Amino acid sequence: MSGRDFVRSLPGGGGSLTARRLNNMHLDPLLLAALLAVIAFGLVVLFSALGKDIATFDGQVARMLLALAIMVVAAQFEPGVYLRWTPLLYAVGMVLLIAVEFVGVIAKGSQRWLEVPGLPRFQPSEIMRIAVPLMVAWYFNERPLPPKFSHLCVALAIIGAPAVLIAIQPDLGTGILVASAGLAVIVLAGLQWRWIGLAIVAGVAALPGLWYVLRDYQRSRVLTLFDPERDPLGAGWNIIQSTTAIGSGGVFGKGLFEGTQSHLDFLPEGQTDFIIAVVAEELGLVGVITLLLLYLVIIARGLWIATQARQTFGRLTAGGLTLTFFVYAFVNIAMVSGLLPVVGVPLPLVSYGGTSAITLLAGFGIVMSIYTHRGW
Amino acid sequence: MVASAHIKDPNREQRDFTSRVIALFLLALLAIFVLIARMIHLQVADYEKYRTRADQNRIQVQPIGPPRGLIFDRNGVLLADNQPVFSLGLIAEQITDLNELLAELHKLVEFDDRDVDAFKKRFERRRRSFEAVPLKVVLSEEEIAALAVNRFRLPGVVVEAQLVRHYPLGSLLGHAIGSVRRISEDDLKVLDPVSYSATQFIGKLGVERVYERSLHGQVGYQQVETDARGRVRKVLNVQPPVAGQNLTLQLDVRLQQAATDALGERRGAVVAIDPRTGGILAMVSNPGYDPNLFVTGISAARYKELSEDRQMPLFNRAINGQYAPGSTFKPMVALCGLSLGATNWDRTISDHGFFKLPGQARIYRDWSWTKGNSGGQGIVDLQRAIYRSSNVYFFDLASKLDINDFVSCASKFGYGRNTAVDVADALPGRLPDPVWKRGAKGEPWYPGDNVNMGVGQGDVLATPLQLATVAALIAERGHWNRPRLLLSSDQALTEWDPPPPLPDITNLVSASDWERLIDAMEMVVHRGNLGYQQSGTAFPYIGKDLPYRMAGKSGTAQVVGIKQGETYDEKELTEFQRKHAWFIAFAPADAPEIAVSVLVENGGGGSAFASPVARKVIDAYLLPTLATPLVTR
Fold it and tell me: Which residues of B touch A326 (CB under 8 A)?
């Protein structure tokens, strides 16, 4: 069955001219629409958070267009191409992560960045956000599922190596997110529920031990979660100001550009990691729920696409990348609203900055490729 | 089953995968519900709490300093106002390297190390964040321009306009009305931190100090929206400050000017009082200083120059200069002698130029005494003792007085205490008595102390303000009006609690005694052309062509003691050892409108040097030679 035939047989907009054209371009109309809606929503909020700074805003629009272009390009390759190149991508990512340990640039107290002449400074951990779920999917592609214990161990090693390297930079947040992307693939691969239950129990039991591994600033972030007032001007400042921004927005918000917390600089990182607080302050509960529903559409569509894939690699990749996207969104919002400790995770497709958007949209490009190259 | 588990089974995988996806999707849905629940908790349940917190974050209350009340003279001439000056301030939060910045500023603006030290002290104790701490308060036009041009490379440097006290007449009234100074650390310990929260200056001397609470006004407030760094973005609400009370003083600037001119280059003081009210019409201490210098901080070099000047321009002689009153003491001694029954108008003595206590060898000399020629004024009664200023008469009279009666009578004239309503800085002078002498000198009171006190010498001290007060009291025939500087204020001064009136001493002696004393004082000025030793002491200097009746008394205060058997020889003494010249007067004698005391430091004889000054002051007040007549008397 060709892709075109399939789309035509879809209920809803599948028959429209636009949908057909998009399908010819290997793009999924629903997923694309939801992504564009989030991006548009994000740009509006960002314009406010930037204090109507047109120049910076234009830069972000350009970055978003670039990320969308990368998504379109990524969608053109057959999933087989990704399957072939996954080990290499993973290997390159690992090499770069190791390189970061030795020649990385230190900024804000951690060694995360790599400077390659001719390229903008970048974090190799970004590559791993895609490479890890791809690699796990690649690994399980030819193997029987549910995975055997030995295979499981290999998969955990594939996940663990980069996650640990990233965590010791130190960038515990990204490390955990990269690990969770891989673990999502393992869960999707059919890991027995009892093992999952066992892992959760073990994880909870290990939590106290984790405390001793944490660095001081990480510990204070955890303590701050439970009692932001213990250091209101230091570690607690961010979370106090972000919850104040969110709470003061109320149901309908103070209005776009009217947020006092964000525009009077009380809210730290209002354009980047804490932008959900700007959404909540200026657009209120309504704005937050709107954004969450858009995210939900993306996730639902991504997971549905995963179920439509014929091959293990396609299923696991599409499902893994989609879940990764959701984990990012959840962790970010939970962190800003004071449910999780502060970790450096941007709000997907909304926060200021380009690399995160490029990685995420490249991932959705792969998801669309999997969907529109139905042989897979 | 076990074997099949190791073979790839696409159908089963697809089924398993779908169930996993459904499970994970439900998990994601749950996670989203958790987030929404959290948002509802923050945005709906706790909305009020966070709304309040956000407002508290951004809204701050800032004090606005009240403009200080203005000060006018009795004719409405402005004596103290507030003028904008441009000051250079630094904002700590915006400065990276203070010393580097100061070095950079030094190229553009003039200031010295002392300024920097004082600035650094203020810098340490600044009150609010993003408050500009003044480095230099008065910038010249050139400096403002230089700073404006270089502004872009001087972050944290601000040029601010503020209202600062200004005294338009400068040194003419420096001593009379005092001045404000920048609030010091010591001031902060006692000041109400709320009402002074936006005020940088406080009255430190004179009227400015006495009426500080009324002049200061009430602090205002503004609600401002600030950002997280404390910078004001928007003013939301203003409660304007209430300006301080405007005060009108008794002073008459033209009389002040006339008195200053009359003193000329000489060091000294003039105080003129309207005896009918006690209002201080003029209060001059010469040389004066420009109080504006002190308002915004004076340079170390200039301050040193002023404070070490031998002429002592910073010394307010009118109220803080305590001198032996000399013969200006005598009218009081005469009245007390009459009151205590120690003398009367008919009693005479024989004045041979010196006085001896019974059984003592020490001689007390009259001013007319010279070595070899004993001098003396001949037969002297009380009237003659006053217009000829016979020391011997008063030596004799004082020796007859009980010291405690004498002192208690003298204190009724205001000697030894500050009787002024609102001249808080005035010193009390000194009225010695046996208790004081025992304490201060460890000696008993000798009869000789009585003798010296009879002519205003010895340990007795008085200020020009006190002697002007005595002149006014005599002019009023014993009716007390405490001297005062304040004439009126816009509204009643609620913060001000004036001292109670002093009891009149009109009954100290009979009405005719008052008139005879005043007649004798008129003779000091007007009695003349009657032959050798018949003229009043001041007649040759001021009495010949006076168009009105003036009562006066000259005085001469010794600065260095003259040993027994020696003569005061002006030529042998340095300028600063010469006698001080006094003159007190009031006029017109029968209905006095002005009472004056004049002190000329190291001037010599009171009649010769001080009485012409007094006449010029009274002339200026009474004679219609002024271009415009005085509005209020």
Answer: 28, 31
